[in-house]
């Protein structure tokens, strides 16, 4: 008798164990439900015990199934990473998943220097707010916003957790050059429903002004908020590291020396592995050096 069961049966068991539903597992694996059932029976025959308990509302893991399921998941993840790592060594394409704001305001203007230093590596930016799944998406590294604690991933702090209020010099003049945040009683707040506004006013020791409850222009990204602020349309809350060029050109100013944070920062993340692909190591070294210039 073989010492290990067929890999297909193991993959089917993993899918059913995750979904606790034969139909969903079949859809994920692009198989028929009867084929899924057959593979599970093969595995149960190999073990000599049931892996699932058939219930009125579906299926549940048996005692043996609960024992085996996490080990199977880890083994399949290790197998996937092993082959991904091997494949990564044979390709020169580095795929980076990143959020739109980070990509457009910070990474895109700098990524050219990485390619100049590493001309043998091509870079693809996968710009999306979708939380990438390294086991299913063909991505080598990602930029995430959070607190750095993602199971199964290595994370490296880039910074960017603090934000502040910015506006154009002309708008600052228009509202009478307020001396402190307490003077912001009749201003236009760009993205007034942004969760950052109450946090920033709290950092200034103040309650949010009544003007924040007025209708305003809602924006989806810091980039858009900065564009509107630079055009003189009001006050915006942004991370200073994303508007360094606008400050150099005099399009934006920071009227008050008050910064705030929600506790989130930007991190470089990639799967934990015994051997990290060379292209990922090179990108890690480059972006950490560049991030030393990022205002935290």
Question: What's the short story on this structure?
Answer:
Helix content is 40%, strand content 17%.
How much is the radius of gyration in Å? 26 Å
Mean pLDDT across all residues, rounded?
88
User: What is the level-2 CATH architecture name of the largest domain?
Assistant: 3-Layer(aba) Sandwich
Oligomer: single chain
Features:
D-Maltodextrin-Binding Protein, domain 2, 296 residues, three-stranded antiparallel sheet, Arc Repressor Mutant, subunit A, elongated, 10 strands, five-stranded mixed sheet, alpha+beta, 40% helix, 3 domains
Description:
α1 packs across α2 (22-29), α1 (7-19) crosses α3 and α2 crosses α3. The chain folds into 3 domains: 7-87, Arc Repressor Mutant, subunit A (Orthogonal Bundle), CATH 1.10.10; 91-160 and 264-291, D-Maltodextrin-Binding Protein, domain 2; 162-261, D-Maltodextrin-Binding Protein, domain 2 (3-Layer(aba) Sandwich). The longest helix is centred in the N-terminal third of the chain and has 26 residues, at 63-88. The chain is elongated, with a radius of gyration of 26 Å. β1 and β2 form a beta hairpin. The chain has 296 residues and is α+β, with helices and mostly antiparallel strands. The strands form 3 sheets. It has a 5-stranded mixed beta sheet with strand order 4-3-5-10-6. The protein has a 3-stranded antiparallel beta sheet with strand order 8-7-9. The relative contact order is 0.14. It is 40% helix and 17% strand. The model has no long low-confidence stretch (mean pLDDT 88).
